[in-house]
Every structure is written in structure tokens, then in C-alpha cells.
Write a structure and sequence with these properties.
Layout (H helix, E strand, L loop, with lengths): L3 H10 L3 E5 L2 H13 L6 E5 L12 E7 L8 H11 E14 L22 H10 L2 E8 L1 H13 L9 H4 L3 H13 L3 E10 L4
Parallel strand pairs: 1-2, 3-4
Antiparallel strand pairs: 4-6, 5-6
Length: about 200
């Protein structure tokens, strides 16, 4: 995206953060915003695919995946690539949309049609991550919190003129409304989970 979580983590934990996005315009926007907030010494961004990350093996202590996996069909490859990035004992944190029950309504922020969406249930997501060489430490269903957030957003009235729709395009309001409806109706859920690497045998 435009790097908000990366800047938050760097400011909160005084760590160095590298963000990756497939879209070069998003990376350019993230670089611009990071420079404007004075965080360029701690936060950087690269254009790249999550299935072929532009980094050497074992270079990171932690990998965070936020609202990405539902875009990717090749989940085993995705999670193996994340495993490759981590040092021994490294942690992998995922915060993502998952299937919960029933067919989602489209379009949503990551897909205009079902053919472009690669959602899994929370259980199937965790199983795929563990198969890539991880052990689960924490799993939490954050669907209720997401519903509360959407309800508060809806009650606050129209969004300010500067919102994610500036980057996502004119259909963003409909995409976001469908995501909220899918959560409220129990079609989708939000998974938060933390894993650690398992030593190779």
C-alpha cells in the first residue's frame, strides 16, 4: 500500500522496516509520505512480488503480511517465500481477510470479481502457513473488532476528501461498502495470527 503500517511500526518500536508492494505507484507514494514524515532513515520500500521477494535469505527478524494473501492463488509459494526471508527463530505475523461463511459480495477492495479473489478460511490459511515451516504461537479472530470499526466509520458520515480512495480510484467507496457488508453478514472474517519458524530437519 502507501506504507502506513511500516511507518507506524518504525515509530512505535524504533525498528527498521522495509515495505514491498507489486505496484510501483504505491511504492512511489509510500516513499513520498515517508520522506514527508521524516522517517526515510528507518523506513524504505521496494517494488516486488511477494512470490519472489527481492532480498537474500534470512535477512529479517519479522515479516508482517497485511491484507495481501487474498490476492494470491499460490499460497504455498507465498508462505515458503516468507519463510525464506526470516532468520532462525524469526516471527511471521499475518492480518488478513478470510472466508467465514457464504459467498462474498463483489466488488471488494482487492477484487472486482470472484475470479480475482483467492480467499481461504482461517483454518486453511493457518494450515498452509504451518506447512511452509512455521509453528503457530497466537491465533485470534478479529472479525468483531472489524465490524465495530466499520460501524463507527459508517456512523461518522462521509469520509474526508483525503482517504484511501485517492489511491484506489473512484470505485473505492463501493468496494469498501461491500467489504463492510460481507463482514457484517458473516461472509468474511479477519484473522490475526503469529507464527515462528521451525528449524529445518
Amino acid at each position: 500500500g502507501v506504507g502506513g503500517p511500516a511507518r507506524f511500526l518504525a515509530a512505535t518500536y524504533a525498528c527498521e522496516v522495509t515495505g514491498v508492494d507489486l505496484s510501483e505507484p504505491f511504492v512511489e507514494a509510500a516513499d513520498y509520505l515517508t520522506a514527508r514524515t521524516g522517517q526515510a532513515a528507518k523506513v524504505s520500500f521496494k517494488t516486488g512480488s511477494a512470490l519472489a521477494l527481492p532480498f537474500d535469505d534470512g535477512g529479517f527478524d519479522v515479516v508482517l503480511l497485511q491484507h495481501v494473501a487474498m490476492n494470491i492463488a499460490a499460497r504455498p509459494l507465498l508462505y515458503r517465500e516468507i519463510r525464506r526471508m526470516l532468520k532462525p527463530g524469526g516471527k511471521f505475523v499475518t492480518f488478513d481477510v478470510v472466508l467465514n461463511g457464504g459467498d462474498p459480495l463483489y466488488p471488494v477492495p482487492w477484487a472486482k470479481t470472484p475470479a480475482e479473489s483467492f480467499l481461504l478460511t482461517a483454518a486453511a490459511t493457518c494450515e498452509a502457513i504451518e506447512a511452509a515451516g512455521f509453528r503457530m504461537l497466537v491465533q485470534r479472530d478479529d472479525t468483531a473488532e472489524a465490524k465495530t470499526w466499520f460501524a463507527a466509520l459508517r456512523a461518522s458520515g462521509p469520509p474526508p476528501s483525503l482517504n484511501l480512495g485517492v489511491v484506489m480510484g473512484p470505485g473505492f467507496a463501493d468496494f469498501a461498502a461491500n467489504l463492510g457488508r460481507n463482514l457484517m453478514e458473516g461472509r468474511l472474517g479477519i484473522l490475526t495470527a503469529v507464527f515462528e519458524t521451525v528449524p529445518a530437519e
